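Notebook, p. 212. Picked up where the previous page left off. The plan for this session was modest: take the two constructs that came back from the sequencing core last week, fold each one, and keep the raw output in the notebook itself so nobody has to go hunting through shared drives later. Recording the first one now, exactly as returned: residue sequence, then the structure token string.
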Amino acid sequence: MPDLLKPQWFQILLALSRGPLHGAAIMEEVLERTDGAMKLWPATLYGSLRDLEEAGWIEQADADDPPQPGGRRNVHALTAEGRAVLIAELERLEATLDVARRRRLLDSREAV
């Protein structure tokens, strides 16, 4: 398990935590959830999906949707190991956020 996940990997795993998705749906969810701050361009998305699959954190899943004209959509799902990696990263972020709260760093946002 890496010390830190690449931001795009974290966002992809988080998107897949709600269930299997195809690439376009992953891109849409990440863009929407981050209020446009993270756009996964196709090369980044599909390279990341390949890397995550090679790591054993995601796998191909059966598509519920019928094949689209011009080809089929690959649907991706979290594996048990991928879910464990995501949870570990969320726990790391939670611990960091706890430090920020104890130091009242977030309170200073109101004073700015």
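Okay, moving on. Second construct, recorded in the same format:
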Amino acid sequence: MNKHRILMKLVTSFLFALQTTLLVSQTTISGTVFDEKTNEPLEGVSVYFDGSTFGVVTNPKGYFELPVDEKINSALVISFLGYSDLVVPNPYDKGNWKIYLKEKAIVLEGVTLKADPFTRAEKLRAFKAQFLGNSANGRSCKIINEDAIWLSYDVTSNKLLAFSDEPIIIRNKLLGYENRFKLIDFFVEYNRQTLSSLSTKETYYAGTSFFIDKQKDKRLYRKRRNATYQGSVLHLMRTIRDEDFDNQKFRFFKGGFKIKPESYINVIKQENNTKVILPDFKMPILFKNRRSDLTKRGDYLIIDGYGNFSPPNNLYFNGDMGMQRIGDMLPLDFKPEK
């Protein structure tokens, strides 16, 4: 059985000037966005918390206010077509942001590719399978702007590469969301020169996402979203954070034997977040006979009130959770119905 490795990371790069003054009102983030060159305010800039439905656009004066119910351990993304994105890891430490976006020129260079053995249709099909996923949710997704995706196959490394200069607009039919995913990096590495999923060695993607709720039939989508949430990474992180092991139906194992997770997982409550120290051994987890393996890659995790964990590279998933893709994503602020 092939093991798929999924690494989700947030890439933060400050490529333009950022000036701030101190002014924070509870959990409302505010500021003004300008063109770096002209100093003119920019209208219609998207400002959102990565992986959530919390987002606004700037008004004609470039101003925005973004309220949230409670602090979310997720980066604030400022995005405008034709400009370099700004990713703010901690938008709470400063307020009334004055943000200057820089116009960008896209230059693809430094990568020399030999003759590409696959057609665009073949590469796009493989990309969607690995990016959206092969679950029912993933198969129901439709990419609205496929033409914005640049695809190539490097025969030297047997890697499928993807890039997009604009957010990839994904309509999830089963879950009723539109996910605007800004793809920062993507590749699929194969064991040989192929696009077959059976020969996948590693899948990697990085980016930021903003969810728009498109539901029409609340009852229908509520049921589907709840089913997707059950056994997801988000569900697991909230279970660990709350130490609600008895009620959430996750079963933890060590060496083939069922264990009490509270005896091996150290949960430390902090003022706004929860610090979690996982055991050093690979921990199999079962949820309704769906197996996932958790491997610790760092000293600890920080889980916020929404279930978002960081640093993302400190935890490695195999099995069911490792196979979950963009099509199975729920917003961090999703709350299951009981």
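Notes on construct two before I forget. DSSP finds five helices and 24 strands in the chain.
Flagging for discussion at group meeting.
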